[in-house]
Specification:
The relative contact order is 0.17. The protein has a domain of 181 residues: Rossmann fold, CATH 3.40.50.150. It has a 7-stranded mixed beta sheet with strand order 3-2-1-4-5-7-6. By secondary structure, the chain is an alpha/beta fold. Helix 1 packs antiparallel against helix 8 and helix 8 packs antiparallel against helix 9. The chain starts with 5 loop residues before the first helix and ends with a strand. It is 44% helix and 22% strand. The protein contains 9 helices and 7 strands, in the order ααβαβαββαβααβααβ. Bound molecules: S-adenosylmethionine (SAM). S-adenosylmethionine binds next to helix 3. InterPro entries: Methyltransf_25, SAM-dependent_MTases_sf. This is Class I SAM-dependent methyltransferase. It comes from Pseudonocardia humida. Keywords: Methyltransferase, Transferase.
């Protein structure tokens, strides 16, 4: 998918799914000792980095990502949030050799990033090495792209492009739908928690929700342009101009969280 709007879409996800993000940050925060050292893997626009830095005022967070544009956006947000002195960014491709992260981490946070990495077993072994004994890994994953359209025709369109997205992810070797509990155990972690969040936000929704739908559907339209029928592309084009003003949208998303502890 194109890079356009990636930072905005991630920021909107954080805003619109605020209650979910707050609950998970509280959970992760409860695992951290005083003055924790935290590493955010695939930090993106900084949703986890900034929320953890705000929630834990004496935490130091290292945000890792391979995308320098997103890291720049993250740094600007960290300045605006007044936490820049406790946040550092490191550009790294986590499928290659990992950078030296210094002292072992107390908490590693990986939200919507593990499924991107080429070799989950290798990644988990790297995380295990990066953590101190007794440190925690929090994995947050999404089961699929969110859904927005409440009418039957819209839901059928979403079904079709969701199926195509799943095929594309499979072809690209992405690890969506993994049982990370099993993977954590195989990598030598103790699984300390596992929870699924079924999110459904109904109208009236804040205006940001309609923008979230618009940006998300535009990304799908551009990412799948050559894989969908011309009718579906035209339907997505039409939605791009209308969906931002709709007041009947529903936001449905499923997220799962696993907590692993390095023994
Ligand atoms: C869906 S975004 C999630 C961002 C953020 N964690 C959040 O929850 O909003 C996935 C992020 O993983 C990063 N990523 C994907 N593959 C990566 C790799 N091999 N090394 C480092 N970062 C990677 C992407 O650049 C992107 O920022």
């Amino acid at each position: 998918m194109p890079h356009d709007h990636m930072a905005e879409m991630l920021d909107l996800d954080a805003d619109v799914l605020h209650d979910f993000h707050r609950d998970v940050i509280n959970w992760a925060g409860s695992l951290a000792p005083d003055r924790p050292r935290i590493v955010d893997l695939g930090a993106g626009s900084g949703t986890g980095t900034l929320a953890l830095a705000r929630h834990l005022p004496d935490a130091r967070v290292t945000a890792l990502d391979k995308d320098e544009d997103l890291l720049e956006h993250l740094r600007e947000r960290a300045v605006a949030a007044g936490v820049a002195d406790r946040v550092r960014t490191v550009r790294a491709d986590l499928d290659l050799a990992w950078p030296d992260l210094g002292a072992p981490a107390d908490l590693v946070w990986a939200s919507a990033s593990m499924h991107h990495l080429a070799d989950p077993a290798r990644t988990l072994a790297e995380v295990r090495t990066a953590l101190r004994a007794g440190g925690f890994l929090v994995i947050v994953e999404l089961d699929s792209f969110p859904r927005f359209l409440p009418d039957p025709a819209g839901a059928a369109l979403e079904d079709r492009f969701h199926a195509e997205l799943a095929r594309m992810r499979h072809e690209h070797g992405m690890h969506m739908g993994e049982d990370w509990g099993v993977r954590l155990t195989a990598a030598g972690f103790e699984v300390k928690g596992e929870r699924r969040f079924d999110i459904e936000l109904r109208p009236p929704l804040p205006p940001r929700a309609a923008r979230y739908a618009q940006v998300s559907l535009q990304r799908v339209r551009h990412g799948l342009a050559d894989r969908l029928s011309s009718d579906d592309v035209a339907a997505l084009d039409a939605l791009a101009t209308t969906v931002g003003d709709r007041d009947d949208l529903v936001v449905r998303a499923t997220r799962s969280v696993w907590i692993g502890r390095r023994p």
